[in-house]
Amino acid sequence: MKRNKTGLALLYMILTAWALTTIYPLFWVLENSFKAKDKILQQSFALPVGELFTLANYKRAFERLDIVHAYINSIFISTCVTIGVMILAGLASFALVRFDFRLKKFCHTMVIAAMMFPVFSTIIPVYTMETSWHITNTSSWGLNMLSVILPQVAGNISFAIIVLMGYVQSLPLELEEAAHLEGCSIPQIFVRIIVPLGKPSFVTVAIFSFLWSYNDLFTQMFFLRRPEMQAITRLLNELTSKEGTNYGLMASAVTLVIIPVIVVYIFLQKYIIKGMTAGAVKG
Amino acid sequence: MTDGADAPPVIILKGVTMSNIYKSRKYVILFLAPAFLFLIVYLYYPFFVNIYGSFRQIKNLGSYGTRWNDPLLENYIKLFTDPVVFTSLKNTFFMIIATIFGQVGIALVLSLLVDNIERGTQFFRTVYFFPIVISATALGLLFNLIFLYDKGMLNQFLELFGKADLTDWKGEKLAIFTMVLPVVWQYVGFYFVILETGLNNISQELYESAAIDGATRLQRVFYISIPLLRNVICTCMTLGVTGALKVFDLPWTMFPKGMPLKETFLTGTYMYYQTMEAKNVDYGSTLAILIVVLGVIISKVTRSVFRESEDI
Amino acid sequence: MKMKKLTAVLLTAMMTISMAGCGSASQGTSQESTADSAPKQEQPAETASATETAEQASGPVELTVTTTFAGEDSNAQNYKNAVADWEAATGNTVSDTSATSDETFKTRIITDFETGSEPDVLFFFNGADANDFVNAGKVVSIDEIRSEFPDYASNMNDDLIAASPADGVKYAVPVNGYWEAMFVNTEVLDAAGVAMPGADYTWDQFLEDCQKIKDAGYAPIAAALGNIPHYWWEFAIFNQQTPDNHLDIPTSADDATGSQWVAGLEDIKDLYERGYFPDNTLSATDDETFAMFTDGKAAFLLDGSWKVGGIVGSCQSDPDDPATLDADKLSHFDVTYFPGKGNRRTTDMIGGLSMGYYITTKAWEDPDKKAAAVSFVSHMTSDEVVPLFAQHTASALKNAPVVDESRFNALQVKAMSMMSGVTSLTGAVQDLFNGDCRVSTFDGMPDIVVGNVSAADAVQEGIDVYEDTLE
Known about the structure:
- The complex is a heterotrimer.
- By secondary structure, chain A is mostly helical.
- In chain A, 78% of the residues lie in helices and 0% in strands.
- By secondary structure, chain B is mostly helical.
- Chain B has twelve helices and two strands, in the order αββααααααααααα.
- In chain B, helix 3 packs antiparallel against helix 9 (217-244), helix 9 (217-244) runs antiparallel to helix 12 (281-305) and helix 11 packs antiparallel against helix 12 (281-305).
- In chain C, the strands form two sheets. In chain C, strands 5, 6, 7, 8, 9 and 11 form a six-stranded mixed sheet that branches. Chain C has a five-stranded mixed sheet with strand order 2-1-3-10-4.
- In chain C, helix 3 (42-56) runs antiparallel to helix 16 and helix 11 (256-273) crosses helix 21 (455-470).
- The longest helix of chain C has 25 residues, at 2-26.
- The two termini of chain C are 26 Å apart.
- Chains in contact: A-B, A-C, B-C.
């Protein structure tokens, strides 16, 4: 195929322009996290070299914020949410696709409709409910974590079921029938066939559940109140209300929250992108 | 996670003949019960409690009040007369429109462009996608710094071009724009990746034979790519519309209390405001019902408008 | 009448502090009072040992404590230190859930009580914000505590402990008071050729000065009306009234008080229309306009005594380290009275002791925690600890100790000299007209100033909510 040189150059220019809008803001916040507050407001485009460079923001961020604890809490919460979602959604999607039962259509509608419940529409009753179980605002770390994990699992489960249903549907039934003839029980079929074959889909669900849970401010805002129990997003939000105009500190805190996510993303992007589209687009 | 992505891809339960190995009622219950327990306890039960709450007089979160509203339908009357509800609905619809044309539109253009290049595809895919993995809170702070009046990135940038006075990006005139822009920006990559995958699935032979017939590059895009992408575009639209209804974190971080002049409220942020800031919990519950009802209606409408065609 | 008496006592208490403060700096007159206060230093120690013995029986306890001494609050560090001291002295531990005070914080506290997850000890507002849990009997009155621990809060002047507006009973042991006044960036005043306002500053002079400052290219008033209009609301209304009737709550927007409120809000509207607030006053956050003030872009800032710490912090290259203070920069900041109008004298101020330590019924009924809670509050309100918190504000101590002025920075000293000229100190009416009553005139302030909603309608809407709450 013949290619028009100028046309191609234009293509790359447009594509690069959009790429700049996604890269530059992050780079900008990174470079400004090494500058003092007043310099950010005057010379935000200058590279932080020489006079401009300072590590004070990071020093202060580590002093003022219990970042290490927040990371541990965040990772713990998100890991539990991920595992919970994978198990529950895996079982449910298997049953919803393969089994024949009276309320099947109804159950399916329930899952789809559940996607229409944004977290904020259920938070008032959920808060009341969890408080009556005494799992919020206690001094017990485990219970506090649980109070966030449970609603997050609930919030992610319907998306996961739908993605996994798409996958289970695409599996050839013959395989399972053959296994059945060899004497596999239904739980064995699930563990030995469905799960191993569906690895990419499970990985997708896992990654998304993890990311959403890690990034979810809303639930954390309601349930994590004590300083030692805060998760990373919550900490970031707290920071804005405490130090609204300390832009340097804010830039460094944003950087600290974003960096691990970006690193994980770069390593796992193959799964994230492929798996996600597999869920959304069939074929 | 409340932004954008977690809307249902449309799955049609086809008449798959079930194997006779899957009959056992016991396993159905065993497998479904845990997940549905979560859905019921954390989503459906609260929804019905909200309906109850919307008729009560609730001042403080955590209880269901001491008495019924007087008149009983007080909150619903308020819902229809409250100008801010109207504003938030208007903004939510604007968000939906912006999603369709902004997110999906830009993503479509970008994916068609990427389809025409050979080198760097992977790079663009990686780069376009990554705003999605960052928390909306962090992005909200980032954009606060960018739009800062005195003097964030944009105002400093304009200053470089000799603009002397400061632009109030969050002021009355530009607030909606400033609110919608980051949300659109964040999710372009998401739809880009979906559309790009769709494009990759179109067989090269089709293009080649069209080229032989003398079709120009542009013609190929309009007569081959876009029609064949129809289903994927529809999926994106559905995802986008339902996602737009759930946007919360970014606008709330950037425009607390619907500043300025309560003009930037979305249904979700207004509900949170009424519950937590204005301490009108029962009205907040009423708004929560509105949100769910609105979501169900809109997703039904969207699905019938953007129905995937079966004949491909 | 009662209010008046309280004001008088409070004022005397405050004067003693500032006088003593001045004294120690200049002459030897305060020598006596130093000697006077020396024996008192031992008092808290006694109290502590008394409660300690009470605890030894029950072993170490974990108390949950919620205060507002967090974040940017000037006393956040004092609080941490005081808690650590108490922990070290008693062997008990404190599980602290303090947070910055804002509407969300208040909502959460009320919710905690509602759902039974309240802390053992709470430092909270003693105004109408506490009505819900006071009415529900979830906190213990000082009298009840004294029936078992006679020394509880015995170092406080009982007249200065505010009673709950809900039932007239005293629950909260106060620590530090507050005042609200107008901070001034004198650098901006100089640039605009405006003199530093004094004790006879009037509203008309203020308007004149604002115009000069605006003409010189600065924002006259640093305020984010869309975010924190609280102080302007309070003083604009106060300016239509006198200290005697400021705490009245109107029954309708057109009764005497109601029309004063409307007139007050219209004064704010007038300032807005004249362009005396920053251009982005409706879209900015309070932090942003505060930064304008400290950066020398705005001249006046109406705020509370807790902001002294923030201003001083902005003059330090490391906000946590007082040693990095730029004294020259700090010398450009001053504080003065809000310009007077009508019958309100310029020197009539808003202030008082609006917060205090509550012991919750939950802790009181828990035999393990009872003594610990009492010991904790006794420690936090002891003659030693309170002055650290109170600084340039009032306290309710019977024997206000001498303040060593040399420990204070320039702005604190200026604040003290301002306090010495105060003619009356009145509580904030917004503490009585609280929560959702204020929404229509607080969050609705932008709509009022741009003219979307009339001030009278907004006031009436708030009154309706208020009446509704009373039912």
